[in-house]
Design a protein that fits this description.
This protein is of the alpha/beta class and 492 residues long. It is 47% helix and 16% strand. It has 17 helices and 17 strands. Strand 1 and strand 2 form a beta hairpin. The structure holds zinc ion.
């Protein structure tokens, strides 16, 4: 029986503001869309947290046996500096400042983003579509919204008509905002804007002559509005209705609100069934911001090359630290908190390694099957990773205190414990044994040195030394193999 049949997974749906039982539309297939980065600069640590949170969601769904199609986009056009449909395209601006092609900017920061996500051991999405790769589909959707009478064209731009949409739909239902309040909070745009209402948003924008990212359309040369790409790419790959849409909390309004409106206007359907939002990251108690200098880049975190930290932290330790908070809770980064997480992580990995050497037998109070149930209960409760970690540490205490020759549980329980620890620590939480990786890398270096020394000894016809190196390595279980590509080694 697949695990999803014996686990009732509850998700907190931002739309209903309550936990709901997860019932996929076409189970065991699950469609999940997550708003990806705008690739105009190094990925922000706060964004990393969002993507790592949804990596946990993806990993747990997969662990339960669901077949997840995970789509996460790359925004490479249309995201303007100013959210109110004004200002330069973020990527175009960077390209202008650095005298590069926009696609050079996109390529550089997409690769950087992938590298950071790989270091955090995040599983790549099944599809990673780009806005510029879906201009045709976006133009099609603009046409559909115009045909539905919920958008209007002015001077080469097309705007979504929010007040008109709100006559038949509830604009603001995701973020809990009322259109009247939104209206009163905006400035009177009389004469300053083409928009009929300040709440309207561009779905297609005319490109002025300085705008470098531009495409032909039925309305002239322009570019798609930022909100449009996510509606278009999510429904293209997951269907007009799909299961999960994720993103950072800051995207709830206006981005996701606009997505809902665009989906309803172009397809007549409610696109997303479960909206999930990850919370923010702060640094030393304050919001991260480039302008105040209270900011930290992922590589600064890994190397410790920053005045915010005493030292660098392995990506997997940072990941473990993030997993200690629920994805819907705010999380504060600080040197002390990371040091504490590192200690916990080391204890956990020591226990994972010790577990391999435990022998069954004897008695103890540790009840493996109850413990395992509690782990699943935690994850079934809206992916509650901090509670899962608390349970894992109950097992860590048991393992570290156990007598290795008779650990206190039966062989069947020991097998269940080993399988569950490996599943939760490595598959679900996505942690890695950094010491083992580091050890492996160092062994490679040492072996390169020895293989070199042996090659030199052979070149000097010093057969005694070359044989000694080979034989002594063989004694400790390392086999050298001479082949046409040089000498390699294998561990026995
Ligand atoms: Zn989006």
């Amino acid at each position: 029986m697949p695990l999803y049949e014996e686990n009732d997974l509850l998700l907190y749906n931002s739309l209903s503001r309550k936990k709901e039982k997860f019932e996929p539309l076409n189970g065991p297939h699950v469609g999940m869309y997550v708003c990806g980065p705008t690739v105009y600069s190094d990925v922000h640590l706060g964004n990393c947290r969002t993507f790592i949170s949804f990596d946990l969601v993806y990993r747990y769904l997969t662990h339960l046996g669901y077949k997840v199609r995970y789509v996460r986009n790359i925004t490479d056009a249309g995201h303007l500096v100013d959210d109110a449909d004004e200002g330069e395209d973020k990527i175009g601006k960077k390209a202008r400042l650095e005298a590069l092609e926009p696609m050079e900017i996109v390529q550089r920061y997409t690769l950087g983003f992938h590298d950071v996500m790989a270091r955090f051991n995040a599983v790549p999405p099944s599809i990673e579509p780009t806005a510029t790769g879906h201009i045709v589909e976006q133009i099609d959707t603009v046409k559909k919204i115009l045909d539905a009478g919920l958008a209007y064209e002015v001077n080469g731009s097309v705007y979504f008509d929010v007040p008109k949409y709100n006559e038949t739909h509830d604009y603001g239902k995701l973020s809990g905002r009322k259109i009247e309040e939104l209206m009163s909070g905006t400035r009177d745009l009389e004469g300053q804007s083409e928009k009929r209402s300040p709440l309207d948003f561009a779905i297609w924008k005319k490109a002025d002559p300085t705008h470098i990212m531009r495409w032909n359309s039925p309305w002239g040369v322009g570019f798609p509005g930022w909100h449009l790409e996510c509606s278009v790419m999510s429904t293209k790959y997951l269907g007009e209705q799909f299961d999960i849409h994720g993103g950072g909390m800051d995207l709830k309004f206006p981005h996701h609100e606009c997505e809902i409106a665009q989906n309803a206007a172009s397809t007549g359907k409610e696109g997303v069934r479960y909206w999930l939002h990850g919370n923010m990251l702060t640094l030393n108690g304050a919001r991260m911001s480039k302008s105040t200098g209270n900011t930290l880049l992922p590589y600064e975190l890994f190397t410790g090359d920053t005045d915010k930290l005493e030292k660098g932290f392995a990506p997997t330790v940072v990941r473990f630290f993030m997993m200690q908070a629920h994805y819907r809770s705010q999380l504060d980064f600080s040197n002390d908190a990371l040091l504490a997480a590192e200690k916990g992580y080391v204890r956990l990995m020591d226990a994972v390694r010790k577990l391999k050497s435990l022998q069954p037998g004897g008695t103890s109070d540790f009840k493996v099957s109850e413990w395992k149930d509690k782990c699943y209960e935690a994850m079934n409760d809206d992916f509650n990773s901090p509670i899962l970690i608390a349970h894992i540490f109950d097992a860590v205490r048991f393992i570290n205190g156990a007598d290795a020759t008779a650990c206190g549980i039966s062989s069947e329980d020991l097998e269940t414990l080993t399988q569950s620890i490996n599943a939760f620590v490595f598959d679900v939480l996505g942690l890695e044994d950094a010491a083992a990786d580091e050890g492996g890398a160092k062994l490679d270096e040492v072996m390169k040195m020895l293989i070199d020394m042996r090659a030199r000894a052979r070149a000097d016809k010093d057969w005694a030394l070359s044989d000694k190196i080979r034989d002594q390595l063989a004694e400790i279980g390392i086999q050298l193999k001479d082949g046409p590509e040089g000498t390699t080694y294998t561990l026995q």
